[in-house]
Amino acid sequence: MNSDLIVNRFFPSKNGFCLFAIKSMSVLKSSVNNHLHPLLDLRTHCVIREVSSFDAPTITGFTFPLYRDRLLLGSWKAKVLALGAWIGSRPVGLALCEKTSRTEAILRSIWVEPDCRHQGLGLELLQSARTALAEQGCRRLEAVHRSTLEDREAFEGLLASAGWCRPRLRMLVLESTFVGMLRSPLMANPPRLDPSFNVVPWHEVDSREIERLAAKRQFHVEVWPLNYGPDFHRETSLGMMRGEELVGWVVNHPKSPGVLRFTTSWLREDLQGRGTFAAVIAESFHRISGTGYDHGIWTVPAIFPRMVAFARRRLAPYCYRVSETLGSELAIGG
């Protein structure tokens, strides 16, 4: 079997590895050494230690391209814990964690070379990371993965073996074409907006009104548009006004050529349940026409169960892919 073909299913570069392909790639020979190490070899000769900047060139291929700069340390040094496993001079595993606050960290990736799997090395890397982070004052470690992960069962089994909690839904992710979503009743025959409301382009909303609403803190931080940067899509991002008052929004961002992400939407709670929210989402969607985007991605945080239920009922049947982002966590330290 050609290992490059398997690798390229996950990343375009030859040296890019899929971190959580624990079982499906176990049939492959090691890219460095074809000898299969017995358990005694790992216990006797495998050393786990922190990765230094000198190690980076030999081990960056063990994590996702997005996180490889963390291994170069520099400005990342205070935030990153990178534990590598070596047999002699050969790297065979990596656990990469990043501190997100003084007491919390996230497991960015974990990788064990195919010929060294099923011998406890992945578990040992997780336990070593837990100990090291606890010594740094961390009290909570989390991990995030997609439900579409090819070896989801194996990865979740590894976390369970290390004492992590069962994965829980964090985000519902829906992907659809513009044409496909037009088949939905919501988009084909959207509800009429109550005349007491007015929809305006998001960039035309008065900044003083945005500041006023921010000060009132009527919404969860997850949906606040300013958290997602200034590069929103001007044609489809909308503010919902009631008189001079901002009461809702749909704010979208370009994700890649031809793909628009419907990033965040919100409507004041006392105004929900009247078809108003659906009308604004439909209005935003219809403004895609002629902008060069033919695919859309909706992300719905699990902390908003009504929005998740709405998306599953009204949008999911017309999507070509529906997946979930799952999260697991581990209490560490004292």
CATH architecture of the largest domain: 3-Layer(aba) Sandwich
Q: How many helix segments?
A: 10
Beta fraction: 25-35%
Structural class: alpha+beta
Oligomer: single chain
Order of helices and strands: HHEHEEEHEHEHHEHEEEHEHE
Give a short summary of the structure.
This protein has 334 residues and is α+β, with helices and mostly antiparallel strands.
Detail the topology: elements first, then pairings.
Layout: H1 3-7, H2 39-45, E1 46-50, H3 56-59, E2 80-87, E3 90-99, E4 104-112, H4 121-135, E5 140-146, H5 152-161, E6 168-177, H6 178-181, H7 185-188, E7 198-201, H8 207-216, E8 238-242, E9 245-256, E10 259-267, H9 276-286, E11 295-301, H10 305-314, E12 321-331
Parallel strand pairs: 4-5, 10-11
Antiparallel strand pairs: 1-2, 2-3, 3-4, 5-12, 6-11, 6-12, 7-8, 8-9, 9-10
Describe the structure.
By secondary structure, this protein is α+β, with helices and mostly antiparallel strands. It is built from ten helices and twelve strands. The protein has helices at residues 3-7, 39-45, 56-59, 121-135, 152-161, 178-181, 185-188, 207-216, 276-286, 305-314, and strands spanning 46-50, 80-87, 90-99, 104-112, 140-146, 168-177, 198-201, 238-242, 245-256, 259-267, 295-301, 321-331. It has a twelve-stranded mixed beta sheet with strand order 1-2-3-4-5-12-6-11-10-9-8-7, with helices on both faces. Strand 2 and strand 3 form a beta hairpin. 33% of the residues are buried.
